[in-house]
Amino acid sequence: MSDLLSLDQAPAGLGAALRNAGFEQFTSIQQAVLEPTLADRDLRISSQTGSGKTVALGLLLADTVAGASDSTSNHEARKSRVATPVALLIAPTRELAGQLGRELSWLYEPIGAHVLVVTGGTSVMQERTGLQRRPHVVIGTPGRLLDHLRAGAMKLDRLETIALDEADEMLDMNFEEELDGILGYAPAERRTHLVSATFPRDVMKLANRLQRDPISVQGTALGRANSHIDHVVMQVRQAARFDAAINVLLRYPEDKTLLFVRTRTETVRLADELCAAGLAARALNGEMTQRERTAVFTQFRSGAVRYLVATDVAARGLDVQDIGRVIQVDLPD
Question: In the chain, how many H helices and how many E strands?
């Protein structure tokens, strides 16, 4: 590993944008992906939640995106109404895709790069209009990306990099067929990065099939990124777990709290029980429309709703900085 880089050494001159966003230095994973010896390699990026993986991915793609932004002319944009991004980021959930879009939008604003997010549950026609503006970076969920490719609204002729974020979650959600469909449109000469909190056997199998000459990049050691978090186990009868969760909330009424349950039905049931107990709660699950999910998340993020009950899939990628407590009402898978 080379000497620590300063923000002034950020690729594509993005140091000022990082400072404006409150960065004082690179995190371990951001430093790691910028190692010069990794240039042109396919990366397997592993680092814990909260360690800066999204910005690390943005920095990794920055030079490619900046070059595409500089070379795109108004004449070229008028000539074709089909999107030809240079970078494609695939995420398992709408919320995670949205978070990636927000982070990369402010990061790439100084270089004039256009970032577009396309996901299920939103207007296809609005997305087609966005694709006609020829974004440099497209971020989306597997099914919706494949829809646009099949419809001819997007081509991958100019694609230089594909990144799969939360690869383990995508396999858990059975997206492998859609991923293969998307990659069938991509050029053989490309960089393929996988970002995953863990690399179990099935993710390694996928990585081995998609990547060429890969190298693993790790940021934080296990447990280091969130060492300030206390973990408490409470043994209760299965039938009493909702009551136990309510008692915890009553003991710590000031904490904004995220509660995880196993099924969509239980998100609604527990949220209703919390409301009946006088605790302002909302459910978040995959059966809700995107508008409903966005409204609930906005209420939780602003503090208008203090308790959010979600399945772990629906909550993947939520960006909330002031959560004081997380309760696993059911044991996590």
Answer: 13, 11
- Cα 41 from Cα 305, distance rounded (Å): 44
pLDDT tens column, 246-291: 899 988 888 899 999 988 899 999 999 999 988 989 998 878 877 7
Report the C-alpha gap between 227 and 224 in whole angstroms.
5
Please choose, from the candidates 145, 215, 195, 216, the residue with its C-alpha nearest in 3D space to the C-alpha of residue 175: 145
Enter the DSSP assignment of 257. Answer: E
Residue with tokens 């995190």: 27
214-218 and 257-261 strand pairing? unpaired
Distance CA(41)–CA(35), nearest Å, equals 11
User: Do 310 and 283 meet the contact criterion of CB atoms below 8 Å apart?
Assistant: yes
Host H or E run for residue 163:
strand 161-165
DSSP, res 333:
-
Q: What is the pTM of this model?
A: 0.77
The helix-helix angle for 142-150 and 176-183 (nearest 10°) equals 40
CB 230 within 8 A of CB 294: no
3-state SS class at 54: helix
